[in-house]
Amino acid sequence: MSPDPASLSDESRASPPDGASAPPGYRSLVVVVLSPLAFSLVFACWTLFAVLGVELRRDLALGEVAFAVLLSMPMLAGALSSLPMALLARRLGGRCVMLGCLLLICPFLWWISRAHHYPEFLLAGLGLGLGAGALAAGLVYVAALGPARHAGLALGLYGAGMGGAGLGYLLLPLISQAYGWRMAPLLYLLPVLLVAGLLWLFAEDGDVPPPTAADEDDESRPPPWRTRALRLARRLADWQLWRLAITYSFFYGAFLALALWLPGHLVARFGFSLQGAALRAIPFTLAVGAGQVLGGILADRRDFRSLRWWVSAFVLVCLFLLSYPPFSMQIEGVHGELRLHYSAPLWVFLGLLVPMGVAMGVGQGSLMRLIHGDHGRDMALVGGLALTLGGLFAALLPPVFVLGSEWLGLGTAGFMFLYAALVVCMLVMVADHARQRRRTD
């Protein structure tokens, strides 16, 4: 399909924020280096329950559904906190909010090492999810203070922090084996505090915009919080804010869910130990991170609105092939029965998963650059909205994966659901494309 026509008027198509015009140098370097580190650590903390799943399920006697709900807790809390934290970062500064969110997850890491009951782990998981505020604030921070000429590259490098899930895959099994699983969250405290300290010492916020006249208190107007809430509701009713955010949310949410689901799936399907399964899941997370950088670079060079179609189509083909479970066929042939058996070996599975990860990363990197180009002054609102939708989608997936496997009796039910979800997402894209064509005719 042809690229989408220009969909925003001159007034609504905002230019990048004024802070983005800051000259490249020390500030941009600090932004591009420290923000992805914070991103990586938050993602690494979210993999705690997934990689330590065997020990947790044994000690707590958890069933499949209960464990899936536990995996969903950080993503649910992250979805609910992303948009408010992004808007708060616009008012107070991204560094301040990132720093606060990193410090906020520290007591919950400590609590996980001491918890003994399932409700305690659920609450601790919700606490870890508040770290998503650092992701949303960091997105606003990078968009505002990163190098303007290479905004896609800066946003792609920031998104590459999703590779922090691979850090969890690599370190957590080793820590658990050497010191016991309860030591793993405690050892995460040191790097979290270290990055928070670096942000405090070396990063700085851009100029916080002064309050507008609409935000000031006036006897003839509702209180400021009501004014802001009504204005936010009116702006969220604008479909233009949702167009790119919905597509981005699929790639973001699908990656989050797969990053937490893959180790257990590899254990069940190929019989690996948890450590072996986690190591074999690393290429997928690294592929998504590399794809984010590539997608940002491509979007810097050209307004690749049509790229989302090609990326979605490629991911759809990969999901279709990954959805095939092992099966056998018996055919009555001319010379007797023919028996066919299909079971994808590990190299075929990874050969589909890794290129799909690159495509998902390209989709995220290019879409976030497009969001930045279309909604530069509204990056907090639209970027936070994209992270919120993606987090809600990701929180839904682990229980759906488990229930689908139980109802269908197929271990690949997760890929089947993602395939169906991407079909729906592409249908929304088609409807939106037709709507934009009608508006321009």
Give me the CATH architecture, please.
Up-down Bundle
For the record, the CATH class is Mainly Alpha
> What strand line-up does the widest sheet have?
1-2
Average of the residue pLDDT scores: 79
What is the N-to-C succession of helices and strands? HHHHHHHHHHHHHHEEHHH
Query: How many β-strands, per DSSP?
Result: 2
Instruction: Output the structural class.
Output: mainly alpha
Distance between the termini: 17 Å
**Strand share of the residues?**
under 5%
Helix percentage range: over 70%
Structural write-up:
Its main location: membrane. By secondary structure, the protein is mostly helical. The protein has one domain (21-205, 239-440): MFS general substrate transporter like domains (Growth Hormone, Chain: A). Helix content is 74%, strand content 3%. The protein has helices at residues 26-46, 48-51, 53-60, 64-92, 94-114, 118-129, 132-145, 151-159, 164-179, 183-202, 224-236, 243-270, 274-301, 307-322, 346-374, 379-408, 413-440; strands at 327-333, 336-342. The protein has a two-stranded antiparallel ribbon. The longest helix has 30 residues, at 379-408. It is globular, with a radius of gyration of 22 Å. 48% of the residues are buried. Residues 5-25 and 207-222 have low confidence and may be disordered.
Concise synopsis of the structure shown:
This protein is mainly alpha-helical and 441 residues long.
Features:
single chain, about 450 residues, mainly alpha, Growth Hormone, Chain: A, 17 helices, about 5% strand, globular, NO3_transporter, transmembrane helix, transmembrane
